[in-house]
Amino acid sequence: ALTGLSDLVPAAHRAGLAVYVWTLRPENAFLPRHLRRGQDPAAPGDAESEARLLLALGVDGLITDCPDVAVRAREALRPERPRAGSPGPRRSAHSSRSWTTTFSSRPGPTPMTLIRAPASSSIRRT
């Protein structure tokens, strides 16, 4: 079992490599035990927490068949930027085009989506 933080992501970045996680799935069967919800392996667990953790560790992006979960995790780590003259956050629907890519890598109805990490999500980026 893995415990603690690994230096794998920072070491890869120091070597000039990008780190993408393949593939983030929401079902309990694909999640670490502490993020599973209930006993059914096909039931959804806490994939959003897994995505948030991976992004906070500094991965450059997540490849997932459940982009809504990864986008929520990304948004939770993205710093709020107030609009000029407004104290509220600024969110732009069209800006997601620059950090999402949907593609099909296998037969079947579920396409995969790459969600790129926000620049400030890494807790240990070098």
Description of the structure:
The chain is α+β, with helices and mostly antiparallel strands and 126 residues long. 22% of the residues lie in helices and 14% in strands. It is built from three helices and four strands; from the N terminus they run αβαβαββ. A four-stranded mixed beta sheet has the order 1-2-4-3, with helices on one face. Helix 2 packs across helix 3 (67-77). The radius of gyration is 16 Å and the shape is globular. The model is unreliable at 86-97 and 121-126 (pLDDT under 50).
Provide the structure class.
alpha+beta
Give the neighbour order of strands across the main sheet: 1-2-4-3
The quaternary state of the protein chains shown equals: single chain
Q: What is the helix fraction of residues, given as a range?
A: 10-25%
Which band does the percent of strand residues land in? Answer: 5-15%
- List how many beta strands DSSP finds: 4
What is the first-to-last residue Cα distance?
Answer: 26 Å
Unreliable segments (pLDDT under 50, ≥5 consecutive)?
Answer: 86-97, 121-126
As a whole number of angstroms, the C-alpha radius of gyration is 16 Å
Biggest beta sheet summary = 4 strands, mixed
Would you list the SSEs in sequence order as H and E?
HEHEHEE
Rounded average pLDDT: 77
Q: Per the principal axes of the C-alpha atoms, what is the gross shape?
A: globular
